[in-house]
Amino acid sequence: MQPIGSVLPVVLDSVSQVIWVVDHQGNLLYTNPAGVAALGYDSADELVGRSSHATLHPERPDGTPFPASECPMLRPARTGQPAHGNDEWFKRRDGSFFPASWWAAPVDLPAGRGVVYSFFDATEERELQRAHRERDAARIRADESRAAQRRIMQSIESVRRQTARDLHDGAQQRMVSLLIGLRLARDLLPVTASDAAELLDQSVADAQTAIHELRELAYGVYPSVLMTKGLLAAVESLAARCAVPTTVAGECSMRLPAEVESNAYFVIAEALTNAVKHARAAHIRVSIAAADDCLRIEVADDGIGGAPEDAAGNGLTGLMDRVAAFEGVLVIDSPPGRGTSVRAEIPVPH
Fold it and tell me: Which pTM does this prediction carry?
């Protein structure tokens, strides 16, 4: 037989990819240095002449026998057709196994048809694939979570709208009718009926208080100005009612999708509530800027600052969840002694 070294290019000794050549009986005729290193051997002399199948995978990783007759890498010697696989496990010199991707092609040798192998340790590739799968799975879970949050927010927004309408059109109107009836009854009483007049006066006052409380409740559930005039007008109305002097700057000339306006409004409302409760501020500034694809809002105060970064228990967690549900970004800047700024960017769907 002509020595295999005389027919193989010398360049194979310098390539980084494993090259093995086996004869028609499956015995190793040649390996380059990469093939020696891949299995943890010291030199090619330790491998040449050995059965390639018994060297690479005499048994499966679970210990069950792996007959050479079933070896897909030797098949090209019989069929004359190339073969490829990504699901093999090869055995190192120390007995450990590693996942391997391999290619095998028939080669005509003086003694008969042999096979040329090329393979590599696929451990890093599989780890990378696993990391990609986990990343994709995490992204899918995050997308599903945001979608669920958004559906919840939209459902809450719908309930808020309906509840506000019901309060305004139902209970509030009945209370107004009751107030009118009480006033008419009071006007019909003679001057001498002082006890009844006093009782009716008190009832009128109670009815007026109840109407005011219903209006406040309806405004808190979903302000009608948000439905009729949009975000900027609703925030200006909210600022006028705030316990801390509040100014509103910016513009929002176009009407945004209802769920975006509602989400932004309640982000601002919650940020104002936090500032009033915790900031000890003398002034609060609200900024609103709407573009074609993004709504930017900011609530900044001149208070004591120092809001905890984890936001747990201080009302900021809800803001983060609300903004995240619409795939937005919330940034909280609260250096001690220098006030707190809550900035949010909320995408505007088209």
Answer: 0.51
